[in-house]
Amino acid sequence: MGSKWQMERKKDPYYKRAKAEDYRSRASYKLKQIDKKYKIIKKGNTVVDLGAAPGGWSQVALEKVDEEGIVVGVDLNHIRALPNENYYRIKGDFTTPEVQGKITRVIGGKAKVIMSDASPELCGIKNLDQLRSIDLTNSVIGIADNLLEQKGNLVMKVFQGPEYKEMLDGLKRKYRQVKTTKPPSSRKKSSEMYVIAMGYKHKVKK
Ligand SMILES: C[S@@+](CC[C@H](N)C(=O)[O-])C[C@H]1O[C@@H](n2cnc3c(N)ncnc32)[C@H](O)[C@@H]1O
């Protein structure tokens, strides 16, 4: 007998599908559903996957970019290797200049897509968790400011909190189009949302 969480997971259709289709995570379907709707990743793109372990989003991105593009997965945790020669892994904290420098060196220029499914480590204290979430979101937006090429796309997971609207307004000034979505594979009880910011314009000074 497993735990309640393990039992629920076994019944989850996306978990079963991920196992059957050889994806490392049920989260793969979130990116598939987002990309089907917004067409954010194209053949030949350079994609940076922030908070990539175990690698489900990276697998989907690799299918999309094909052999002509590259995907870089970054995580605090080890990401097991994938067979694709155009997949690069970086272990570390992407909020640090050191890891950001490594990403820049690996892509050798700018990225067409920055995506982040990163979740902060939650401690259960609401205010503190909200702050951690905002910090992580701001880091992802800052990385996109530095690494995205003109007309590039950003996809990131966010948790709705007090600064949510302000964050969206900030993105609307920098991107041609900003959408929010909760893909069908995102659990209803989770407060996560995904922001899709398309067509990066330029860095806007506050
Ligand atoms: C929900 S998982 C990502 C799942 C992934 N999209 C997939 O499909 O397999 C969130 C990940 O974000 C990573 N993460 C959170 N904060 C991070 C940070 N500052 N630097 C690097 N990775 C981070 C965690 O270690 C965790 O592996």
Automatic annotation (TrEMBL):
The keyword S-adenosyl-L-methionine applies. Belongs to the class I-like SAM-binding methyltransferase superfamily. RNA methyltransferase RlmE family. It is an enzyme of class 2 (transferase). The active site is at K157 (proton acceptor). It comes from the Archaea. It catalyses: uridine(2552) in 23S rRNA + S-adenosyl-L-methionine = 2'-O-methyluridine(2552) in 23S rRNA + S-adenosyl-L-homocysteine + H(+). It is found in: Cytoplasm. One of its GO terms (cellular component) is cytoplasm. S-adenosyl-L-methionine binds at G55, W57, D75, D93, D117. Pfam families: FtsJ. Its main location: cytoplasm. Residues 23-200 form the Ribosomal RNA methyltransferase FtsJ domain. The gene is rlmE. This is Ribosomal RNA large subunit methyltransferase E. One of its GO terms (molecular function) is rRNA (uridine-2'-O-)-methyltransferase activity. Specifically methylates the uridine in position 2552 of 23S rRNA at the 2'-O position of the ribose in the fully assembled 50S ribosomal subunit. Keywords: Cytoplasm, Methyltransferase, rRNA processing, S-adenosyl-L-methionine, Transferase. Its EC number is 2.1.1.166. The lineage of its organism: Archaea, Methanobacteriati, Methanobacteriota, Methanomada group, Methanobacteria.
